[in-house]
Design a protein that fits this description.
17 helices, six-stranded parallel beta sheet, alpha/beta, single chain
């Protein structure tokens, strides 16, 4: 039997913050489920374009954001709208045309999806030079707009909400080029799970008030151990699930310092079952990354946001608070105060849960694929290609 050659979808991501990779993974999983006749190929854009300096540039970026958040926030706001500075930044960072052409020649994709803004920039430049005519889609991974995502040769933008869609229109993007299907999230966040059974699977008490503490893939939450130790001021014992990500130093520090806590403490490093921990939690304390918070919305999990970085995280926090699915704590002391308030206000928690249902996030990855696959079919018709579906 002749083997059918699958059409390939190239998904470009970047490991600068975990959200870009999470969206790429969500799209890959959704393609394999919904369109098995197509083959998703996920590539770390920065690793491919700059293989010798990517590791160090990533560390430098993360350290700069952590150490100089005010500077990062200032530059973010200064380049929010297209202007001379944002144009210069785009020119500086849209490098790697030769390497990108080599990748396209190797993969021969039917369509290219960018979950990382620099990747979208290079794809746009290739099209502007007439080097390729492949359809390109950009998936914005935050609840906000920014000029770094906007390029003239992008065929379609996938965004998380009508608010972001309207913001892109204000930046000059045509309405027909924007689909507000929601930020794509992995299928497991769309599943219902039985709390008691799931809690016991992880050695947790299913009947105890449970708070999930997330700091992003790098485990950067608040002031580390000092923030968590503030929780001893809470009047009642609480079950805390603290995900430290790749921050092994923080996990060891917390393990030592929280030995005498009156709370029940469950510590983990980087894990692949966050959806199960969300399913058994009543509240999530987190930095407001776009993807993690959209996953929490899908799980109908109220959020308490802690110290967002000025820039996209602050924008995300504002959006989530306005939407009634989160509360923002300004300081470590305020975090404990707000957490106590939530734990003792069942009505408020239920209102926040109800508000999550307005977003319809559970099918966001598949809804995004319908948009993407529609572009593929249209392009194939233009080129006279028949595809199976």
């Amino acid at each position: 039997m002749k083997k059918v050659k699958k059409e390939k979808i190239l998904i470009l991501t970047g490991n600068y913050g975990n959200g870009h990779n999470q969206v790429a993974q969500a799209l890959q999983d959704a393609v394999q489920i919904r369109f098995p006749h197509m083959e998703p190929v996920v590539i770390d854009f920065m690793e491919w374009i700059h293989p010798y300096v990517n590791h160090w540039s990533r560390l430098l970026y993360l350290q700069a954001v952590k150490t100089f958040p005010q500077v990062y926030g200032y530059l973010y706001q200064k380049t929010r709208k297209p202007n001379a500075l944002s144009h210069i930044v785009k020119i500086v960072f849209s490098t790697g045309i030769g390497r990108m052409m080599k990748l396209i020649g190797k993969v021969q994709p039917t369509i290219v999806i960018s979950t990382f803004p620099l990747a979208a920039g290079v794809m746009s430049k290739l099209k502007s030079y007439g080097l390729i005519d492949i359809p390109t889609v950009t998936t914005i991974t935050d609840h906000t707009d920014h000029s770094s995502w906007i390029y003239p040769y992008t065929d379609q933008y996938i965004v998380g909400s009508k608010i972001v869609r309207d913001s892109l229109i204000q930046l000059g993007v045509e309405e027909m080029q924007i689909s507000d299907t929601g930020i794509p999230i992995r299928p497991q966040f769309s599943q219902s799970m039985e709390r008691v059974k799931t809690a016991k699977k992880h050695g947790l008490d299913p009947y105890m008030p449970t708070v999930l503490v997330m700091g992003g893939g790098c485990g950067m939450i608040g002031d580390g151990s000092s923030t968590i130790q503030e929780f001893d001021q809470l009047p009642q014992p609480v079950q805390f699930i603290i995900v430290c990500g790749h921050n092994e130093k923080l996990r060891m520090e917390l393990s030592e310092k929280l030995k005498g806590s009156k709370h029940r403490i469950h510590l983990t490093g980087y894990i692949h079952y966050v959806h199960e921990l969300m399913a058994v939690s009543d509240i999530m304390i987190t930095k407001p990354g776009g993807v993690t918070t959209f996953e929490a919305i899908a799980m109908e999990l109220p959020m308490l946001l802690c110290k967002p970085i000025l820039g996209q995280e602050q924008d995300n926090a504002d959006f989530l608070v306005r939407s009634g699915v989160a509360i923002h704590a300004e300081t470590s002391r305020d975090l404990t105060k707000q957490l106590s308030k939530l734990l003792n206000d069942a009505k408020l928690l239920q209102e926040m849960k109800t508000n999550t249902k307005r977003f319809h996030p559970k099918e966001s990855a598949f809804a995004s694929l319908e948009v993407i696959f529609g572009i593929v079919k249209m392009n194939n018709r233009v080129n006279g290609i028949n595809i199976c579906s």
